[in-house]
């Protein structure tokens, strides 16, 4: 409460781009992308997309780190209509001040590589890893599936703020944002100077096209619904979609990755919680809950369960 009042007072007095909370955390102001409407780039509910920018300084003045926010997906009308009323589908419901910690921190001892770079957190409000381009309108319900346009509108907004003169740049993201890194890594490079040093970092975004323990394609079905609802296929890498019998599989990093030309660092746990709970052993594949204790505590998994998980990984 004290922290919120502190921010409110400062905003009224001088509209700062950032403040420090009373426990010394860096809080960065939200920037709405005003020009996004020119591109038809909207969050699910029609609100404007947004990012948070903390300026670089010193030796990092011309270096840029962009981070996609994560937060799952919505793959059917009902889940997207629900999401549109939350912070995952609308900037109207998001916190306007984001804590910049970890790779976004400006503290040299906590974030030695990037503390003085321009650091940007791109808010996630489309529900398809910034990759869709469609719209649903039946007269009573309206949903924008405009992730691809949101991505473009953010980059175009940042270019005149210095991104177009970047010397080094890193595109990063976690979870659904980590998947967005695979999908936009080369596109990011196309906006930057030829002589810039550009790399990508996907954290926990390597979502597998893998069969579950009942041998059903649970996760493939989930993502295929997402791709079809949100109009993602047209935005997948053309070289990849031309080469596969099922072009939608290019949404999966295991297929998309070989077409990415920008240097890419992949960070992923073999037993990533989302993957384990939703792709390998979804509730539909374990109706009697034999895996519940193992899901809650991987150390409690039986040797047979560990073997089963290993097989899922090897088959991929
Ligand atoms: C911070 O955000 C508020 C609300 O979006 C805005 O009115 C204000 O101008 C922003 N401050 C700066 C320095 O951008
Ligand atoms: C930076 O982080 C270190 C380690 O946690 C801490 O001791 C120091 O006070 C922090 N510096 C600032 C300016 O917050
Ligand atoms: C429009 O779609 C929503 C969501 O599927 C549904 O609840 C609503 O009844 C539909 N309206 C019309 C007029 O079909
Ligand atoms: C990058 O993506 C945008 C859409 O977000 C598209 O308009 C543009 O043509 C793409 N650039 C390249 C070089 O593919
Ligand atoms: C927004 O669009 C206007 C008109 O096209 C343009 O002049 C302006 O530079 C744009 N602003 C940004 C931040 O891209
Ligand atoms: C790239 O080239 C431009 C124009 O020649 C130059 O100003 C800039 O410093 C170069 N950047 C790097 C990283 O060498
Ligand atoms: C999964 O596969 C089994 C047979 O292996 C089948 O009986 C079941 O209906 C499938 N479940 C789903 C959700 O597709
Ligand atoms: C496809 O690959 C060729 C050759 O590597 C490359 O020149 C082209 O830009 C790629 N196209 C796309 C859409 O990535």
Highlighted features:
316 residues; alpha/beta; Rossmann fold; nine-stranded mixed sheet; two-stranded antiparallel ribbon; 11 strands; globular; binds 2-acetamido-2-deoxy-beta-D-glucopyranose
Description:
About 30% of the residues lie in helices and about 15% in strands. A hairpin with a 4-residue loop joins strand 7 (about 135) and strand 8 (about 140-145). Strands 1, 2, 3, 4, 5, 6, 9, 10 and 11 form a nine-stranded mixed β-sheet that branches. Strands 7-8 form a two-stranded antiparallel ribbon. The protein starts with a helix and ends with a helix. The chain is an alpha/beta fold. One 2-acetamido-2-deoxy-beta-D-glucopyranose binds near residues 77, 138, 139, 140 and 141.
How does the SSE layout of this entry go?
Layout: H1 2-14, E1 18-20, E2 26-32, H2 36-39, E3 50-54, E4 63-68, H3 77-83, E5 97-99, E6 118-122, E7 134-137, E8 142-145, H4 147-158, E9 168-174, H5 176-190, E10 197-203, H6 218-230, H7 238-243, H8 253-256, E11 264-267, H9 273-280, H10 292-296, H11 303-315
Parallel strand pairs: 4-6, 4-9, 9-10, 10-11
Antiparallel strand pairs: 1-2, 2-3, 2-5, 3-6, 7-8
Bound molecules: 2-acetamido-2-deoxy-beta-D-glucopyranose (NAG) (8 copies).
Strand elements, count: 11
Structural class: alpha/beta
Compute the gyration radius: what is it? 20 Å
Low-pLDDT runs: 1-13
Give the class-level CATH name.
Alpha Beta
CATH-defined fold name? Rossmann fold
